[in-house]
Design a protein that fits this description.
The protein is α/β, with parallel strands linked by helices. The chain contains five helices and seven strands; from the N terminus they run ββββααβββααα. Helices cover 39% and strands 18% of the residues. It binds zinc ion.
Length: 194
């Protein structure tokens, strides 16, 4: 039997063919003997496998883990028609004077913003970072963008309508915390020296 060599530290980053680079990170951990773990870290999925796992096993197991995580996430994520329905409910309940409705509400990969609204064509985009956020946070961002259908800036009128969002302060704190955590998490992973 051929002996196998491992990198110093027994860690190596591998990107599998056919999977978006940058989104999946496979870490080989010398300390991990059997277990495989997969979790979402910021915008990427991190999969930790034992250092000694064969390439063949890795190729079999990693796509399964990715599929499982994505399936779980998809189940918890409202689809775009649900987002539009939610906006309609929020406006009806909280801001009946705003009769405008968006033509489309879409998830969008946005790292710098939580949402955006284009008034001319009445389209709203919500950052896909919110796909797994609590409902009250999604509502807060949806409501914020929906108010822009009527008010283009963040002036007094805008703020007065936005303040009707019950959990607004909590949601705002959640978003601030998320951004702070993201800045920390997206920093390069420090690989330990063993
Ligand atoms: Zn805004």
């Amino acid at each position: 039997m051929m002996s196998r060599e491992f990198d110093a530290g027994d860690f190596a980053e591998v990107t599998l063919p056919g999977i978006d680079e940058g989104e999946i990170l496979v870490i080989r951990s010398a300390r991990r003997k059997k277990n495989i773990s997969a979790y979402r870290q910021g915008g990427r999925i991190v999969i930790s496998i034992p250092a000694r796992m064969s390439k063949a096993d890795e190729r079999a197991v990693v796509p399964e883990m990715i599929a499982t995580i994505r399936r779980q996430e998809a189940e918890q994520t409202p689809d775009e028609s649900e987002l539009a329905t939610r906006i309609d409910q929020l406006l009806t309940e909280l801001a009946p004077e705003i009769s405008e409705r968006p033509i489309s509400v879409t998830w969008r990969a946005m790292r710098e913003r939580w949402g955006s609204c284009t008034t001319v064509d009445r389209t709203i985009r919500i950052s896909d970072r919110l796909k797994l956020a609590p409902r009250y946070v999604q509502d807060y961002v949806l409501f914020h963008e929906a108010i822009h259908l009527r008010y283009g800036d963040h002036g007094e009128e805008f703020q007065s309508v936005l303040s009707r969002c019950e959990d607004g302060e909590l949601a705002s704190a959640y978003l601030d915390g998320y951004e702070a955590a993201e800045r920390a998490l997206l920093a390069p992973i420090e690989l330990e020296n063993l």
